[in-house]
Amino acid sequence: MTELPQITQKKLGLVIDLDTCVGCHACVISCKGWNTENYGAPLSDQDAYGAAPSGTFLNRVHSYEVQPDTGPAQLVHFPKSCLHCEDAPCVTVCPTGASYKRKEDGIVLVNETDCIGCGLCAWACPYGARELDQAAGVMKKCTLCVDRIYNDNLPEEDRIPACVRTCPSGARHFGDLGDPDSDVSQLVTARGGVDLMPEQGTKPVNKYLPPRPKDQMPEIDVLAPFLAPIDQEPKGFLGWLDRTLDRL
Amino acid sequence: MHPAPSVIFFSVFSGLGFGLLFWLGLGWPSPTGVVAFVFFAIAYLLAVGGLIASTFHLGRPERALKAFTQWKTSWLSREAICAVAALLLMAIYGAGAVFLDENWRVIGVLGGVLSLGTVFTTSMIYTQLKTIPRWHSPLTPLNFLSLSIAGGALLAGQVTWALWLIVIAGGVQLATWIIGDRRFTASGTTLATATQLGQIGSVRAFEPPHTGTNYLLREFVYVIGRKHAFKLRVIALLLMTILPVILLLIPFSHVAGGLAVLAHVAGVLTARWLFFAQAEHVVGLYYGKR
Question: Which residue intervals define the domain 4Fe-4S ferredoxin-type in the entry (chain A) (predicted)?
Fold first, then answer.
């Protein structure tokens, strides 16, 4: 049934650090690589080598320019995937029961053999986390690498989502956000982690850490103000040229 | 939102078909024999034809039967169940009228109410979506229901009822447009709340994730034809309300009645196209689009 569980034993999810993300898209590639070869239908591409390539991705990295009131603009790279919401609107709209949220760890999944590809769950998601695969005709979404995190055949360091494993700047963290003492929960508390679109009432499990305030460069040399200013007036030939051109 | 022809035809024609079944079930008119057969054939062609059209936009139509299972939470599932229940009851009622010259009133009224219920559940599929502020309003079910009842009255030949109901449906349509235009801003969702970067300064989408397009942009960010929206609204209102009212006010003839039906259907199709084409999904914000 597509009823949401009242409580989940764990709230597994991601914490994404917008301060350290460098926008390299490695998480996008590793996600596509892992998820096209493992759980469920492959993530297909259409016209991959043609004029208008397009494909299914479970994770996409946007880039935003933020202009503060004073100072230069900032560029913020913004990875976005399923937020595994506690109040997931994509689950309750599903007519077949293909979409569900797991009681044990809160992961939102699609049972692809039940999916009719009506697309309504993608309509209900405010984050654009679900994409209908054009080749398989079924809905694809982030599985939080459910086939890695519990996989005893993998070395222990690989039992985390592919995007977290691959991130070269340490901008992605995985853990139980339902446990206030977990590393990820402490990180969220320390850095003031936020929900995306809180007004939509989805209660996302994934949190975003906002960029830290930029440093203000102070005057370093305390004697500099006392030094004689450098002569602004050019002398010699350049001085003559400057005066002559002014007179013209 | 991408205005998929299958969904537009489904919602318009099934709305008309179930509207006609509503009037037939209530007993206005209560035909028997061959006349009843013609009435029920038209209603079923519209309602069932619309339902079949709706399966064309599914990625996996062969699994459509599974959509009957999740009635506890899903309006799409409720719609499927309500539609089949209405069609079954009205088939019993229709069989009585065509073959036995009997009008079983209780079954008819129950089937009529379920027919309207089907239109209501269809509208709730759109109304429930918080992500599309224009649809997330009580005006959406009012819009669908008023059009269905008015169109049904027109097809059922209830001229006096049709006249008033078409005017009411036109008024509701106008209100849906005017109030709907303000819904996205009123929802409070902006690029600043979507990225939570508003505390630093003003946010602008700098670079999209991919140079090409994707499913999300094709499905949710449809901007073609929006510049003609005002003209299309005028055309829709002329066709669905003003022209049919004039045709119904002149002395009744079957030609005028037929023209009124055609004009009304063309108008509702235009309005339903606008319903999708003008609807903006909040995910567009992430792409700096609406």
Answer: 12-42, 73-104, 106-135
